[in-house]
Amino acid sequence: MQLFSIFHSFLTLYIFQLLFNVSYSKLNLKYAILRQKQANKSQNDTVAYQQRIKHDAQKTMRVIFYKNNNKTLETSAYDDFYDLKRSGCSASDKFAIVLHGWIQSCSDEWALTLIDRLSYYRGGCVICIDYSVVASSSYMRLYTNFDTLTGAISSIILTLFKQGFDPKRGYMFGFSFGGQLASAVGRSLWPNHLIESIDTCDMAGPGFDPIAVDHSKAGKHVQCFHSSRDKGTLVYSCHRNIMLGSCGLKQPSVASQLHLGSHGLCVDIYINTFDYPFYAVNSTPAECFTWQKAAKIPDGYTVGYEENFDSQVSGQIFVPTSLHYPYNLSKKQLRLLSITSG
Q: Where is the Lipase domain positioned along the sequence (predicted)?
């Protein structure tokens, strides 16, 4: 009788344990399904949020067309077709894309002056992409929207390609944050499309350095002008890295242009290269350190916008600058500088 009682107790305990395990398994399954649903909802919410942010960014961005230095058309970046007839541009034209930086817009003086110089020397169609609504907030907010802006600008350029624009006739310029965008957009278009030429001016460093990026993959010919150590990138991976002033880290003219600083002077110097010769030195200055090979510089070589890119000249190029506008040195001044530094 006692043995039967013990057996009965074990049997009851076993059945109870079995029922508990089944219930627990069902409970686990229920919570697993619930967690999966929550994860999917979270993922869907994230995707929806990203799509909304991209939509909002594109909605506030403007695509501004210039022909013969006249503004001919301003339209939303959200359009999937541009009225080229109204813009005066033709798909067979050369085209240039201009990208501004933080707390800037296509109405900034340097942007309008660059559009003027590109219209005069290059011709064709000049397109400034204005994302000033996003760029007018904090740098951190702008930085967190970097991928969104890259995608939106890439979509704009792809729309141009669909309408017949040829990447081989394309040029892109970006200043500061816009320089990082120009590189990222160019790399995102590859390998289906390759922009012929990209120039950047003191590409932004904060938030991007020290991550190594191969900017040379952004276009067929990529040249990057460097002018500051605090705001500009220290990643020198373009086909040409043009080190302005003192090793690309400081400009002598900052003493007379405090409101611009070494960073802001970069775009002014770049614009001046259209009209004034900025001569490169034939060797790396003794005070400058270089990780990259120094370019072989032909005598009398000048830097700036280059219509027919000389692929033989690549690597780091050192270009001394002066104290006063237009910030270039004459050949005589360059020789004297070489003698005194030697």
A: 47-210
Distance CA 285, CA 74 (A): 46
Q: How many domains are there within the chain?
A: 1
Q: If DSSP codes are grouped into helix, strand and coil, which group holds residue 233?
A: coil
Mean pLDDT, residues 20-46 taken together: 45
pLDDT tens for each residue of 64-75 = 999 999 999 999
pLDDT digits (tens, 9 = 90+) for 141-170: 999 999 999 999 999 999 999 999 999 999
Neighbours of 31 (CB within 10 A): 10
What six digits make up the tokens of 305? 């916008």
Strand order in the sheet with 70-76: 70-76, 62-67, 125-130, 95-99, 170-175, 195-201, 219-226, 240-244, 315-319
Range of the domain at 273: 46-341
Q: Nearest to residue 215, comparing CAs of 189, 187, 247?
A: 187
